[in-house]
Specification:
It is built from six helices and eleven strands. By secondary structure, it is α/β, with parallel strands linked by helices. It has one domain: HUPs (Rossmann fold), CATH 3.40.50.620. The strands form two sheets. Strands 9-8-7-10-6-1-4-5-11 form a nine-stranded mixed beta sheet, with helices on both faces. Strands 2-3 form a two-stranded antiparallel sheet. The longest helix is centred in the N-terminal third of the chain and has 15 residues. The termini are far apart. The protein binds adenosine monophosphate. Adenosine monophosphate binds next to helix 1, strand 4, helix 3, strand 6 and helix 4.
Length: about 250
């Protein structure tokens, strides 16, 4: 079985994001970028499936600027066999990414696509679902356990108030939730080996995909500053504050 793992380059989760002074977006100049954390989980799951003998090849794919090669090299260091960069400097919105991935799926013919459940930059949580719809494949989103046996996939999904277990035929789309696994670190020898693994570059035009944005961002603003908390001296003061100052949120 071949597994395709889409990985997105995003601002590192440790970075305090700054909004550009003109409110047109987020400042990405001189900011540390990394692989979207949920995509690391997706890569790890693909590698574990290969280690269990359920998968033969893992192909990582990223859509975006040339710098996404770095993210792909990380995926290769974590265990992907080869990588594809769909290179574009355009603002790639989720539908455009889903269309590009659908075109890569048509070329590569994987039996399973494992994505992150969402990218931590735009928090869209759309690409996996849109991709499944475009391919007309079954999907299991928010996966916390994935098992493959023969042509069948059994996935435990994180849903409100518990876990749901679904079974579906392959090919299918899975999106990884936080508890699916704990990704390994790339070792130095594997980082070195990754430099020699194949990385192909394609352009959206070659895939016949129009990536023109469908929505326009009108403005981006920082969330309101949180007011500092305070300490109360005793229970009496706490009760008084709850009575007189606490607001009912509805
Ligand atoms: P989103 O729907 O944007 O929150 O992203 C969900 C998942 O889609 C991510 O975790 C990635 O696996 C994948 N994805 C989103 N954007 C890209 C991209 N530009 N290149 C590759 N994969 C992407």
């Amino acid at each position: 079985m071949k597994i395709l793992v889409p990985v997105k380059r995003v601002i590192d989760y440790n970075v305090k994001v700054r909004v550009k002074p003109d409110g047109s977006g987020v400042d990405t100049a001189n900011v540390k970028m990394s692989m979207n954390p949920f995509d690391e989980i997706a890569v790890e799951e693909a590698v574990r499936l290969r280690e269990k003998g359920a998968a033969a090849e893992i192909v990582a794919v990223s859509c975006g600027a040339a710098a996404c090669q770095e993210t792909l090299r990380t995926a290769l260091a974590l265990g992907a066999d080869r990588a594809i960069l769909v290179e574009s400097d355009a603002d790639l919105q989720p539908l455009a990414v889903a269309k590009l991935l659908a075109a890569v799926v048509a070329r590569e013919q994987p039996q399973l696509v494992i994505l992150g459940k969402q990218a931590i930059d735009d928090d869209s949580n759309q690409v996996g679902q849109m991709l499944a719809a475009l391919l007309d494949w079954p999907q299991a989103t928010f996966a916390s356990k994935v098992e493959v046996s023969g042509g069948t996939l059994v996935v435990k999904r994180e849903v409100d108030g518990g876990l749901e277990t679904v079974e579906m035929a392959l090919p299918a789309v899975v999106t990884a939730d936080l508890r699916l696994n704990e990704p390994r670190y790339a070792t130095l020898p594997n980082i070195m080996k990754a430099k020699k693994k194949p990385l192909d570059t394609l352009k959206p035009d070659a895939l016949g995909v129009d990536v023109t944005p469908r929505t326009v961002t009108l403005s981006v603003a920082e969330p309101p500053k949180r007011k500092g908390g305070g300490l109360v001296a005793d229970v009496k003061e706490l009760v008084a504050k709850l009575r007189n100052e606490a607001k009912v949120l509805s």
